[in-house]
């Protein structure tokens, strides 16, 4: 049996095992990713990506979005450079319902709010820093939906089969990637007729584990960030990654069904 529940912090939790077991195994469900479940003496059960997504929708639809409003909006306020700042007073900052309606006016602000809020909920301060870099250095650079960055991660030298296939559609061959990984310095940049591919490395927080980050930028986006914006390669990686994290957080937020009631907190 697979059981989904939520904690007091609005985190989803899934456990798997036999009925009557004293302890069940915690498993993790990821949107649009298949899942294999195995229990001793039973055949492995395979859940398709579609089933996993529907299970998560069913659970998250009964939950409030994770994270706390005030810490997220306080960070965001210091990064905004538009007319919305004038509406962020000491009183309105505390009113979550008001802020959630306000950020509907600006897609980038909405993405940044949920990106920061979700990152704080999982204590991912590296993600918060990347989102800050995006807003400070490249706030409007990603507005063209036809020229979006793409990102892949790998623990091994090369991406997995599905990711490799996606890179090949962008005119990057296996030989190209092998040449990139053979370089001693990081980051490494490779040009193709469709855009630029950047390889960098990142360590998992508080561990010695290194994973590889593969970032693709279409030519117009590269020109916007590098030629026009004069960003360094590392700034481009951080800003693009932060933008993608914020965009994904906003998409994830849409799965949550329960919204907090309109409440204005006292000063």
User: Given the helix and strand composition, which structural class is it?
Assistant: alpha+beta
Largest sheet: 4 strands, antiparallel
Oligomer: single chain
Instruction: Compute the number of strand runs.
Output: 9
Q: Rounded to an integer, what's the Rg over CA atoms?
A: 21 Å
The gist of it:
The chain is an alpha+beta fold and 267 residues long. The protein is 42% helix and 17% strand.
Describe the structure.
Helix content is about 40%, strand content about 15%. The strands form three sheets. It has a four-stranded antiparallel sheet, with helices on both faces. A three-stranded antiparallel sheet has the order 1-2-3, with helices on one face. The chain has a two-stranded antiparallel ribbon with strand order 4-5. α5 (about 105-120) runs antiparallel to α6, α5 crosses α10 and α6 (about 125-140) crosses α10. The protein has three domains: about 1-60, no CATH class; about 65-140 and about 230-255, no CATH class; about 150-230, Beta-Lactamase (2-Layer Sandwich). Mean pLDDT is about 90; it is low at about 260-265. With about 270 residues, the protein is an alpha+beta fold.
């Amino acid at each position: 049996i697979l059981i989904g529940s939520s904690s007091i912090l609005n985190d989803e939790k899934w456990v798997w095992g036999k009925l009557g077991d004293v302890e069940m195994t915690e498993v993790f469900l990821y949107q649009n990713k298949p899942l294999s479940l195995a229990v001793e003496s039973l055949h492995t059960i395979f859940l398709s990506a579609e089933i996993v997504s529907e299970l998560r929708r069913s659970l998250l639809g009964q939950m409030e979005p994770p994270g706390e409003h005030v810490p997220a909006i306080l960070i965001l306020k210091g990064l905004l450079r538009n007319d919305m700042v004038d509406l962020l007073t000491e009183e309105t900052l505390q009113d979550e319902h008001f802020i959630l309606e306000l950020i509907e006016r600006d897609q980038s602000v909405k993405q940044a709010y949920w990106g920061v809020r979700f990152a704080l909920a999982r204590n991912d301060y590296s993600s918060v820093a990347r989102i800050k870099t995006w807003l400070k250095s490249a706030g409007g650079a990603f507005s063209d939906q036809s020229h979006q960055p793409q990102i892949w991660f790998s623990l091994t030298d090369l991406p997995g089969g599905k990711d490799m296939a996606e890179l090949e559609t962008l005119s990057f061959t296996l030989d190209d990637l092998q040449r990139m990984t053979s370089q001693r310095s990081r980051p490494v940049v490779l040009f193709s007729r469709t855009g630029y591919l950047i390889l960098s490395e990142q360590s998992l927080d508080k561990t010695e584990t290194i994973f590889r980050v593969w970032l693709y930028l279409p030519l117009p986006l590269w020109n916007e960030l590098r030629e026009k914006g004069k960003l360094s390669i590392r700034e481009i990686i951080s800003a693009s990654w932060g933008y993608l994290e914020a965009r994904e957080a906003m998409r994830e937020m849409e799965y949550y069904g329960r919204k907090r009631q309109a409440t204005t907190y006292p000063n």
